[in-house]
Design goal:
single chain; about 130 residues; alpha+beta; MutS, DNA mismatch repair protein, domain I; five-stranded mixed β-sheet; 5 strands
């Protein structure tokens, strides 16, 4: 058997060059007898690669040839007054290590429309 290789094929990861008896892979990585390789959804790239490393299997990873996207905000939005108040309260709760209270305050902050701008504000205030 040659070197194992990992490929991206139309939204699917294919692990080739290993036999169907290979164990220790994530449950969503299944042997496909039609293509004689293990297949997994591409969204499970990280768990698959971590399991291959844990197995000590040397793999030629051509699936990693994807381009990394440059994420960032296109516009800066200030939080609404109730969000600023919740941020302050969440910060106090985190300082006191009252994580359940912090989660409650963060739940008040987040709506679908405001998740990403708010995440930027949190990141800025937390300093990470």
């Amino acid at each position: 058997m040659g070197v194992a290789s990992l490929h991206f094929v139309g939204g699917t990861l294919e692990l080739r060059g290993v036999g169907s008896e290979l164990g220790g892979l994530p449950s969503d990585c299944a042997w496909d007898p039609r293509s004689a390789c293990f297949r997994a959804p591409a969204s499970h790239y990280a768990p698959l690669v971590l399991s291959l490393k844990a197995l000590g299997l040397s793999v030629d990873d051509s699936a990693r040839a994807y381009a990394e996207l440059d994420f960032g905000l296109r516009a800066h939005k200030e939080p609404r007054p109730f969000q600023s108040e919740a941020l302050a309260q969440a910060g106090l709760a985190l300082e006191k290590t009252d994580r359940s209270a912090a989660v409650t305050y963060f739940e008040k902050l987040i709506t679908k429309d405001e998740l990403y701008p708010l995440a930027a504000v949190l990141k800025e205030r937390v300093g990470k």
